[in-house]
Amino acid sequence: MGIVERIKEIEAEMARTQKNKATEYHLGQLKAKIAKLRTQLLEPPKGSSGGGDGFEVTKYGHGRVALIGFPSVGKSTL
Description:
Elements (H helix, E strand, L loop, with lengths): L2 H14 L7 H19 L36
């Protein structure tokens, strides 16, 4: 079953579900599933990513680098 068929199936379930206080949570879950499936339709499949073109730097000499910035912005991952 493809993504489009699953979306149509969920939309049909939403159409036949009564809208009241008791079913609000269920309808919210269905809307979240539809949103997730639609984003899967838009983004390309995650096959083998090429990783891009890299480059190599030869090590020589001494150097110091200081990273200045706000906390929790990803300085350590750089």
